[in-house]
Amino acid sequence: MVGLTPAALRAMFEAAQAGELRGVGGTRRRLLPEHALDIFVEVRFPDGEWALLVSSTENLGDRELVLAAGLTCRCREGRLEVVAQPTTDRHMFCVLLADLLNHLRWAQHRAATALVARLTAWQAMLGRGPRDGLSRAESIGLLGELLVLRDVVLPFTGAGAAKSWVGPTGAAQDFRAEDWALEVKSVSANTLRCMINGAGQLDRFGLRELVLVYQVLARDDLGVTLGALVEEVRTHPALGADRPLVDNLLLQAGWMDAHRERYERDRYRLSRRYCYRVRNDFPVLAPTDLPHGVLNVSYSIDLSTCAHALVDEPALGDILAPPPNRERSRA
């Protein structure tokens, strides 16, 4: 897969387009001949469409994903094609294809199905509108969630832990398992005022435990960059076969490897982490508290009044541990 950068792929398409007589039909070039999948790029005439074609023995079903204007993905049984119209942003299309081909390194099982999952993550990310990287607030938020994933969730919950990271999907809380949830708030100012966005963020309905994890991040030349933390999480030994899942969630959160250099100047260290057990004596507004006609609300909590709800990380580990481990730790 060496050399299959967005620039190399664009050059391949442009060379194929320039060398073809402008009739009806197309020209096709094979990629990754060593891979088990049959993978081709194709330029189609007379319309000038660019396409990635993948054939496999997997049953992908029949579906169509609209990724962006003029950019579609179609599945027919074991055949997958990603097609860009001439009006599509060619650079973005080649960034997408390079990402898909790189993703195949981690998709050892059911590779074509993994590509469809990756394209679904692209659809979710592009559906939020044109993206030119994460804002400062968004990058701090993602960094904070990754710190919790690395430091808390992966060590305490074991195999399959990454499946609890649901923040990038738009879920009410950032981490949620069968009977517990974590809501992560990360700020770069040394304050104990925590903004809650929506009555659902601290709603305990259906949960055994809900914990608010509040983190203060300090700018520090010796701190970690967002890109370095992304790689650290990706290679975490507890992640195992969930690497493709984490990659897809990163994409849904707005992280793109092609943008990594944009975040290299910003380095942070974890200054403080507070974990608050949300119970009946914790100041929250639940959906059932809203008056009739009020559809949503944002509010701020003064965490200096919530010292009674603090739990340390060993206690948090007991909260998150799978039931057999939890019972043993209490024995």
What is this entry, summarized?
The protein is α+β, with helices and mostly antiparallel strands and 331 residues long.
What would your notes on this structure say?
The structure is a single chain. 30% of the residues lie in helices and 26% in strands. The protein folds into 2 domains: 6-126, no CATH class; 136-330, no CATH class. It has 8 helices and 12 strands. It is an alpha+beta fold. A hairpin with a 6-residue loop joins strand 1 and strand 2 (38-45). The longest helix has 22 residues, at 136-157. It starts with 5 loop residues before the first helix and ends with a helix. The protein has helices spanning 6-18, 90-103, 111-126, 136-157, 226-234, 243-252, 313-320, 323-330, and strands at residues 25-31, 38-45, 49-55, 62-68, 71-76, 79-84, 175-176, 180-187, 193-197, 209-224, 268-277, 298-302. A 6-stranded antiparallel sheet has the order 1-2-3-6-5-4, covered by helices on one side. Strands 7-8-10-11 form a 4-stranded mixed sheet. Helix 1 packs across helix 2 (90-103) and helix 4 packs across helix 7 (313-320).
What key attributes describe this structure?
single chain; 331 residues; alpha+beta; six-stranded antiparallel β-sheet; 2 domains; four-stranded mixed β-sheet; disordered C terminus
Strand order of the largest sheet: 1-2-3-6-5-4
pLDDT under 50 segments (min length 5)? 327-331
Number of helices: 8
Percentage of residues in helical conformation: 25-40%
Strand content: 25-35%
Query: How far apart, in Å, are the first and last alpha carbons?
Result: 52 Å
SS-based class = alpha+beta
User: Helix and strand succession?
Assistant: HEEEEEEHHHEEEEHHEEHH
> Which oligomeric form is depicted?
single chain
Major sheet size, sense and barrel closure? 6 strands, antiparallel
Instruction: Count up the domains.
Output: 2
Averaged pLDDT = 90
Shape designation: elongated
Compute the CA-based radius of gyration. 23 Å
Number of strands: 12
